[in-house]
């Protein structure tokens, strides 16, 4: 009797049948953004707490922070390889690029925001306000006028795990650093732990996550140049919280989601009116997101120990 020389093929992982059930349409408005032949991909894993993903199109690379490991990593889009970008990273957290493409980084350990110049040297943009040390800059964005906006909660000084434990010298706040003078102003105060932030496509709205309330909330403010006013709650993240957020060019808000467990953790997508219209479920708590790829239509998600991506039919704001 003939026998098979090789054992039958076994699938290492169960295949994904398109459309990926991890991408959920909760409102018809989200249907156009889901690509039915695209699935969530895990690009890299084995980290401790990943944050601050930033896309470098000119390098075909994603860079991100592993905060407690004191390392920044780089994923190469061409080869798929992961290598060290910077170590030690001073327990870096949020990252972005300024209008000239230079890397802007929040550092927990040095309690500062830095700019990496083209030659690799690092310049300090700000480390104190009114002669008191910042708490631990968490997330950062650049406005079209080149002002740098960043949040300053206390997470990086609460434990030695993510920086150096210390008493806060300043209330938590969102700051704006003026492009010409470098002068800082506290533009949002009164939130418990201001965290992720982003502008609407026209920069008339500023979204700020408060991850210090239970449940977490996403606030929205009116912006007029350097002035912020009319704060109100945009979304209630019950039963968990958000952290990092990004807008697409249609004004939808893509918010990381953590703390709600299976079926909640991942990314929640809100229409400009605050309606939850879609969800990307991940098997880990998600801390931050960014759009990348040549068409800014690839969503990168920094989630606990892993980096994920998903192609979507939306484009991130530049
Ligand atoms: Mg954050």
What report would you give on this structure?
The chain has 318 residues and is mainly beta. It has one domain: TolB, C-terminal domain (Neuraminidase, 6 Propeller), CATH 2.120.10.30. Helices cover 3% and strands 45% of the residues. It contains 2 helices and 27 strands. It has helices at residues 28-31, 155-158; strands spanning 23-25, 41-45, 50-56, 61-66, 71-76, 82-86, 92-97, 103-107, 112-116, 122-126, 128-129, 132-133, 140-142, 148-152, 173-177, 184-189, 194-199, 205-210, 217-224, 227-236, 245-247, 253-257, 266-270, 276-281, 288-292, 298-303, 306-311. The strands form 7 sheets. It has a 5-stranded antiparallel beta sheet with strand order 1-24-23-22-21. Strands 2-27-26-25 form a 4-stranded antiparallel beta sheet, with no helix packed on it. A 4-stranded antiparallel beta sheet has the order 3-4-5-6, with no helix packed on it. Strand 3 (50-56) and strand 4 (61-66) form a beta hairpin. It starts with 22 loop residues before the first strand and ends in a 7-residue tail after the last strand. It binds magnesium ion. Magnesium ion is lined by residues 51, 94, 138-139, 195-196, 243-244, 287-288.
Lay out the secondary structure.
Elements: E1 23-25, H1 28-31, E2 41-45, E3 50-56, E4 61-66, E5 71-76, E6 82-86, E7 92-97, E8 103-107, E9 112-116, E10 122-126, E11 128-129, E12 132-133, E13 140-142, E14 148-152, H2 155-158, E15 173-177, E16 184-189, E17 194-199, E18 205-210, E19 217-224, E20 227-236, E21 245-247, E22 253-257, E23 266-270, E24 276-281, E25 288-292, E26 298-303, E27 306-311
Antiparallel strand pairs: 1-24, 2-27, 3-4, 4-5, 5-6, 7-8, 8-9, 9-10, 11-12, 13-14, 14-15, 15-16, 17-18, 18-19, 19-20, 21-22, 22-23, 23-24, 25-26, 26-27
Magnesium ion binds at residues 51, 94, 138-139, 195-196, 243-244, 287-288.
